[in-house]
Amino acid sequence: MMKSKLSRVSIILFSILAVLSAAESTVNHYCPYFKNRAPSPQSNLENCKWFRDNACCLNHELRDIFSAITTPLKAASEECSKHTSYLMCYVCAPNQETFYEDERLTLCEEFCDRWYTSCQNAIWKGFIVKDLYNSSAEFCKARKFLVASKDDKLRGCYTLTLDENSASFLNMNKLVWIVVLTVAIWTGAS
After folding, report:
1. Residue pair 181/16 in contact by the 8 Å Cβ criterion
2. Is 131 helix (H, G, I), strand (E, B) or coil?
3. How many Cβ atoms from other residues are within 10 Å of residue 48's Cβ?
4. Mapping DSSP to helix (H, G, I), strand (E, B) and coil, where does residue 123 land?
5. What is the spatial distance between Cα 36 and Cα 56, in angstroms, rounded to a whole number?
6. What pLDDT is recorded for position 3?
7. Which helix (DSSP H) or strand (DSSP E) does residue 100 occupy?
8. Do residues 145 and 112 lie in contact, with contact meaning Cβ atoms separated by under 8 Å?
9. Which InterPro entries does the UniProt entry name for this protein (predicted)?
10. How many angstroms separate the CA atoms of 152 and 130, rounded?
11. What H or E segment, with its residue span, contains residue 64?
């Protein structure tokens, strides 16, 4: 009896995973930052390595972007520098069309919060960041970014976990649904 329930659950999970994978693979992502070209594998990316399997940017473009930006934040912590570098990697994200529109980047509120928190003691134009900006939203908007709140379901936004060895942030929604469905099926089968 238990074996048949496990088999049934396994078959259902496999089917769900197959459907989700097929649905994700049929999404035609494009790169508005780079004139709407399609993302592609870029095995030689020196920065933003977690996008190597599928990237909007080319290595020489990314190198130009990183070298053109002089670090305006002085006395920045390592976390601040990391967040700033990860932010610059949005140009490589294969789902760029979901958060970059009309030459404007939309940041997720959580990312903006983490970036501001990690950089609040850095110095910007002679002033400490937290003395210039009262909130993370104010800080990000001063950089000309839009900020999508947690409740804003209509707007896509850029966020990233700070684990450059993992691209799991790209598939988090799929993982959440698999876990939710597994629990629902498991509790219904018992």
Report:
1. yes
2. helix
3. 25
4. strand
5. 9
6. 56
7. strand 100-101
8. yes
9. Folate_rcpt, Folate_rcpt-like
10. 26
11. helix 59-68
